[in-house]
Amino acid sequence: MALRLGRLSDVPLAAIIALHSDQRVRRHLPLSTGDTDEARWRDWVIAKEQEWHRHGRGPWAFFEGEAFIGWGGLQDEGGDADVALVLTPDAWGRGAELLRMILARARDEFQLSSVTLHLPPSRARNGALARYGFVAETDVWLAGVCFTRFRCRLVP
Fold first, then answer.
1. Distance of CA 73 to the CA centre of its chain
2. Is-above-0.85 flag for pTM?
3. For 22-35, b where at least 16 C-beta lie within 10 A, e where not — what string?
4. Sequential pLDDT tens for the chain (156 residues)
5. Within 10 Å of residue 122's Cβ, how many Cβ atoms?
6. Which residue, 36, 41, 50, 146, has most beta carbons within 10 Å?
7. Structural domains in the chain?
């Protein structure tokens, strides 16, 4: 089934909360608290939507047919366009296709020269990133948690 991009504001909060509450997903989101407070998640969606207004780019909701399968896109992280990709476990096999879509838009639509991606230590198997041009840069601390920052130089 075809993938499509949409707005996070079009996704029911219950689906976003369910995604971030899934223990298999949370294992790779060390900054996630497992909070299920709807007001907090409504604010989260608003903040993600504001990325589009501030930077002209931001995260999308991902759909397979009509089913919400996750979110991701390009978020500002210290002046870099940082790739986010958070999928439901049933959609983990679609990550490569979605990453290719994000990278193509970063290069062609947003005309970025590079993007970053931050992975926590739990994501030890990251060799596939090299196929997309990502190179480990350094370890960084975000909100008290160590991540490895990778960078992908985008060639027009």
1. 5
2. yes
3. eeebeeebeeeeee
4. 789 999 999 999 999 999 999 999 988 887 777 778 899 999 999 999 999 999 999 999 999 999 999 999 999 998 999 999 999 999 999 999 999 999 999 999 999 999 999 988 766 667 788 999 999 999 999 888 899 999 999 986
5. 10
6. 41
7. 3-153 (3.40.630.30)
